[in-house]
């Protein structure tokens, strides 16, 4: 039989253990997100601002989910993968198309970014009605040969130049422009990019929400593009970009993206974005849209591009509508 003293000690011990358990459970509970907070976080990911559009469109976020891979090339395929560092620049061989900036016919420019990582995606896109403008990543080993292939298929070529983003965690690759680089360093990176893509008429920015706000850096970039006789398209990954303004100061042919068509990668979203492009082209005369080599985009373009002629809309490369 337990004595009264022992009983008190036992009850005290049980109460102490219970109190400790309550404290532990309350601490653990604070570290766990509630269902409501999880729903709010998920919902906020669908709200896309200019500042974070690059996160939803960049090759780094899409490459692993694409059903295409550069290593699916067989020995009997036409394409030969480019040798990194091969000194082959074709800018001087490329003829800029006629100027359509004053035409009465509505014009849509389709730019496809993030190319060079997938042979099969590129070949599928290149077989679609054109001309479209294809922007190749200079760090992709296959960009040299794939851009040559696309050019011979009748499409226009640009360099999709990686530029520093506000989100510094995004990987720019080994050929990129960053704030803080000297003029020599920026020109060195541009020189490398010129050797990794063929037949290019100009450049647009891959990401770049930080760099395109840096007037000093963009001054260096535009000076070089002016020297090379190249155009520039501002992908407009942030609303406060100064790229177009500085391009204009250097009398560089330039344009700005109007619509990103696939930062939400659903069939409904892409089709609605393409419909918006049609409306904009009819209202303003020109619409410049940017997409990416995603399956949903390729499928939508394959259905949509053949319909443009019957709608009275002309498809043109970006060099045909740039401000000169």
- The helix-strand sequence is HHHHEHEHEHEHEHEEHEHE
The count of domains is: 2
Q: How would a textbook summarize the main sheet?
A: 9 strands, parallel
Q: What would you give as the CATH superfamily of the largest domain?
A: Glycoside hydrolase/deacetylase
Describe the structure.
Strand 1 (107-115), helix 5 (119-126) and strand 2 (133-136) form a beta-alpha-beta unit. The protein is built from eleven helices and nine strands. The termini are far apart. It folds into two domains: 4-42; 50-320, Glycoside hydrolase/deacetylase (TIM Barrel). Strands 1, 2, 3, 4, 5, 6, 7, 8 and 9 form a nine-stranded parallel sheet that branches. Helix 7 crosses helix 8 and helix 10 packs across helix 11. With 324 residues, the chain is an alpha/beta fold. Residues 27-52 and 58-96 have low confidence and may be disordered. The longest helix is centred in the first third of the chain and has 28 residues, at 4-31.
Key traits:
TIM Barrel; 9-stranded parallel sheet; 2 domains; 324 residues; alpha/beta; 39% helix; single chain; elongated; 9 strands
Question: What's the topology here?
Answer:
Layout: H1 4-31, H2 35-44, H3 53-57, H4 59-62, E1 107-115, H5 119-126, E2 133-136, H6 143-152, E3 156-163, H7 183-194, E4 200-207, H8 215-228, E5 231-234, H9 243-249, E6 254-256, E7 259-260, H10 267-284, E8 286-291, H11 295-304, E9 314-315
Helix pairs in contact: 7-8, 10-11
